[in-house]
Amino acid sequence: MPTVSQEVLREAGRVMLGYAASFFFAIVMQLSAKIRAVQKFKKDKAAGTTKEKFNRYTSDTMLAGDRSVGNFIEWQGLFLVLFWTNVLVAGAQDVWLGWVYVGSRFLYPILAQLGGIKQGGPMPLIFLATVPGYYVLFHYTYLIYRTVFN
Question: Where are the transmembrane segments (predicted)?
Answer without folding.
Answer: 12-33, 77-102, 122-145
